[in-house]
Amino acid sequence: MILGIDIVHKLISEKKLIENLSERELKNPEGAVIDLRIARALRLEGDGFLGIEERETPKMEVFAEFDPNKKSALILKPGDYFVTETIEKFNMPEDLMAIMKPRTTLHRMGIIGRQTIADPGFHGTVHPALYNAGQSTITIEMGARYMQVFFVEIKGKANLYRGQWQGGRATTDGREKQI
Questions:
Q1: pTM of the predicted protein model
Q2: Neighbours of 79 (CB within 10 A)
Q3: Residues 107-142: pLDDT tens digits?
Q4: Domain 5-46+59-156: which CATH number of 3.40.50.620, 3.30.750.24, 2.70.40.10, 3.30.420.10
């Protein structure tokens, strides 16, 4: 079952389900979703590896970053791909899962969002990816609402997240053994 905004707000207030929310999302969200804002855009550099037991992600360079005291933007030219990070931080309980999707404004501009999930027990920021599949250069202000999240109740037992991305880590520090 997808949680209504009244239940989501209660969990935000009582359990810190999501931290660092904007005033808009605390006072006037739309529908049953919470909008997430872009904090950082990371450009992939180098090669990656995904094996049976090990992995290594490409290095990531900060390309744009949110500063509440200064406007800045991510410029996506056709073919550009960035891993992003949300301003908001998740604290997922054992009976909920968060599913993210891009705001429809993005696909109306030719941007494909590769969203993510937050498993039960996950704590940290999340890292959706953006790909400009269109023909136009698109500018996204850092701090803009770009993703939406809804929460799904889990019936029955769920194993808590214990992966290496706990805490909101975006990349590996070289080759590592997968959990």
A1: 0.92
A2: 9
A3: 999 999 998 899 999 999 999 999 999 999 999 999
A4: 2.70.40.10
